[in-house]
Amino acid sequence: KFVNCDIVRVIEDITLSVVNYAENKNINIVFDTEIEEHIIKCDSSMIERAMLNLLSNAIKFTNKGGKISVYVKRLNNEVYITIEDSGIGIAKDKINEIFNRFYQISDPLKRYEEGSGIGLCIVKEIINFHGGKINVYSEVNKGTKFEIILPIYTVEKNFKNLQIRDLKQSVNLEMSDLDTK
Questions:
Q1: Mind giving me the DSSP string for 17-44?
Q2: 152-181: per-residue pLDDT in tens?
Q3: I need a surface site. Which of 29, 47, 156, 172 has the fewest CB within 10 A?
Q4: CB within 8 A of 175, min separation 6: which ones?
C-alpha cells in the first residue's frame, strides 16, 4: 500500500520506539539525519517492519554498554538509512547467507536470543518491493552496519491506507524475543 510519506519521520519514530528495549540492556541508541523531511513513495508499515527487525537484531547482538546508530541522508536521487551497531558482528563468509530464509548465524546450542531466522529475508523482500537495495558491512567483535538505499519517487495520488496500525503493538511483538532481564 504505497503512499507518499515522510521517510525521515517514519525512521525516527520507529527508532525512538525501541529506546526502552535498548536501555534495558544499557545500550545507547542515537538517531541523526542530514535531512529534516523527505517525502517518498513507501508503505510505511512495511518500512517500520523492516526497521524493527534490524533494530531488534542490533539490540540482540550488541553487548551491554554498546551503541546503535541510525542515520538518514539523501544522496542524489536516493535516501540512505543506516543502522550501525557495536555488536558481535558477522563473519565475512556468513554475510552472503544472512538474507536466506531460516538461516541463523549463531550456534543453536549457544543461542543469544530466540528467533526464527526469517527476519532478514523479509527485510530484504520489503526493501526490494520498494525498488531499493540493502547492503551489509560487518567485522566480528566490532559490529555491523546495514545500509538501506531507497529511490526517491512519489505516487501521483495518495490513497488513504485503510489498514489499522498500532505501532506500540508492532514494537512489542518484534521485541518479544529480547531478553529483558
A1: HTHHHHHTTT-EEEEEES-S--EEEE-H
A2: 988 876 555 444 456 666 677 667 667 655
A3: 156
A4: 18, 21, 52, 56, 59
Residue with cell 536466506: 100
At residue 127, does pLDDT exceed 80? yes
* Helices and strands of the chain, counted as H and E runs: 5, 7
pLDDT tens digit sequence for 47-62: 999 999 999 999 999 9
pTM, 2 dp:
0.80
Measured CA to CA in angstroms, residue 100 lies from 8, 34, 125, 176, 180 at distances of 28, 32, 11, 22, 28
What the block records as the C-alpha cell of 166 is 498500532
8-state DSSP, 170: H
Amino acid at 16: L
How far CA 62 is from CA of 30, 44, 117, 172, in Å, comes to 14, 26, 18, 19
Contact (Cβ atoms closer than 8 angstroms) between residue 29 and residue 35: no
